[in-house]
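Problem 12. The chain below contains 181 residues. Write out its predicted structure in token notation.
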Amino acid sequence: MFQCDCPPDDCAARVARYLAGDRAAGDELARKFAPLVYRIVQRVLGPSRREEWDDAAQAIFLRLFANLGRWEQRCPFCKWLPVVAARRAIDMTQAAPPGERVPLEQIADPTPPAALEGDLAERLEVLLRRFPPDWRQLWDWFVQGVPREEMAKRCGKSLRTVQYRLAEILDQVREGLADLA
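Solution.
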């Protein structure tokens, strides 16, 4: 069982430092909670999906850090993180297994509108700048209509990692632009 050491190891202060731009604080949080998240992924995905554990844990951490500003501090961080990680891992169990085809009508049209106007274009650009360079490259390929298998070859990642990252990118873009819909 995971035992939090808050205090003296103040996770809330680390979260605040990370949100203020201190990447080292985020690294400290990731090191501290990586074993816990990994155990959650192992239990939720199970041994039959062992090859997905690393990708899933990484996707969960990326999602957690992208949404860290949403933690409302109604409970200790060390209690909030495992709940969010478990929910995200459960979501992954419902995702299509690698190699399974997704019906074409369920795939968003990657063709961007002819001209994005003013605020929408600016907000999209701000959202995309938050992503690491390799994620922005995936976005560009997605918009260009590059097949996911080809994206995986180009970036040297597994198809599952590409699928997780694209899903996360699309989730964050939808959330960031939701009020315009």
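Discussion. The chain has eight helices and no strands. Students who got a different answer should revisit the alignment rule from Section 12.3.
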